[in-house]
């Protein structure tokens, strides 16, 4: 929250961008008297008016000794002549040098500005590229959705297989149990039958059967001898 | 426009006393006037892209005249 005691931004004054500097300064004639003076006197006195005024003033000052001529006058005249000669001779060189300095400053500032503009433009390019990439979101999500569906499918099938295996194992166990039971019953019954049969063979019967076997063997041996 | 807001060059000769009356002669006012005059001169003749000798030569000439005026008593002996 901004606690402002005075209203902000009320004037139309705008500090940026600054208006460019004027190219040339105000017109000055003979380096001393601004052109406005001549324009000011032109309607009343024409072109020669200011010169007549200047001459009249000069003669008046000289005659009335308001401007006295002494050694300083000579010194001033020499200095003025030297200055004017210097300005006339080296003026353009100095001006060119100063212009070059100015140019370099302006060029540097311009370079910075162009750099900034270029950087911002590349930033805009990249931003647009990112926006274009955003449009491909749907494809990305489709691929991800496919991936997830495949994972789910795989998982489901794995578990299905596991269930099948477990159930088969249990059923096999039951089958094996039944087989084992039947086999045990069979063996037990056979043994029991054999035991009872063996028990039921009395000694009498055993003797008779052994004698019968011997008779049979003899008969067989006879037939075998005859065969040989 | 109103008399007090016109520049000196736009004031007619008959209105000069009235214009002087509207001036602000306090120290701040005088200082402000001097500041404004200097800023106008500076912007017109010195703060340009391609100035010439005119900017400072007028200042030097003014200085010469002023110092001559101050020393006139001594010179005219």
UniProtKB/TrEMBL annotation, chain A:
Record-level GO cellular component terms: mitochondrial inner membrane; proton-transporting ATP synthase complex
Subcellular location: Mitochondrion; Mitochondrion inner membrane
Domain of life where this protein originates: Eukaryota
InterPro entries linked: ATP_synth_Bsub_B/MI25, ATP_synth_F0_suB
GO molecular function, one term: proton-transporting ATP synthase activity, rotational mechanism
Alphabetic keyword roster: CF(0), Hydrogen ion transport, Ion transport, Membrane, Mitochondrion, Mitochondrion inner membrane, Transport
Predominant subcellular localization, coarse grouping: mitochondrion
Classification via SUPFAM superfamilies: ATP synthase B chain-like (SSF161060)
Oligomer status and interactors: F-type ATPases have 2 components, CF(1) - the catalytic core - and CF(0) - the membrane proton channel. CF(1) and CF(0) have multiple subunits.
Family indicated by similarity: Belongs to the eukaryotic ATPase B chain family.
Task of the protein: Subunit b, of the mitochondrial membrane ATP synthase complex (F(1)F(0) ATP synthase or Complex V) that produces ATP from ADP in the presence of a proton gradient across the membrane which is generated by electron transport complexes of the respiratory chain. ATP synthase complex consist of a soluble F(1) head domain - the catalytic core - and a membrane F(1) domain - the membrane proton channel. These two domains are linked by a central stalk rotating inside the F(1) region and a stationary peripheral stalk.
PANTHER family: ATP SYNTHASE F(0) COMPLEX SUBUNIT B1, MITOCHONDRIAL, MITOCHONDRIAL ATP SYNTHASE B CHAIN
Protein name in the entry: ATP synthase subunit b
Lineage of producing organism: Eukaryota, Metazoa, Chordata, Craniata, Vertebrata
TrEMBL record, chain B:
GO molecular function, one term: proton-transporting ATP synthase activity, rotational mechanism
Family, similarity comment: Belongs to the ATPase F chain family.
Main location: mitochondrion
Pfam family, one: WRW
Domain of life: Eukaryota
Subcellular location: Mitochondrion membrane
GO cellular component: mitochondrial membrane; proton-transporting ATP synthase complex
Keyword hit for Mitochondrion: yes
Name of protein: ATPK synthase
An example Gene Ontology biological process: proton motive force-driven mitochondrial ATP synthesis
Record key words, sorted: ATP synthesis, CF(0), Hydrogen ion transport, Ion transport, Membrane, Mitochondrion, Transport
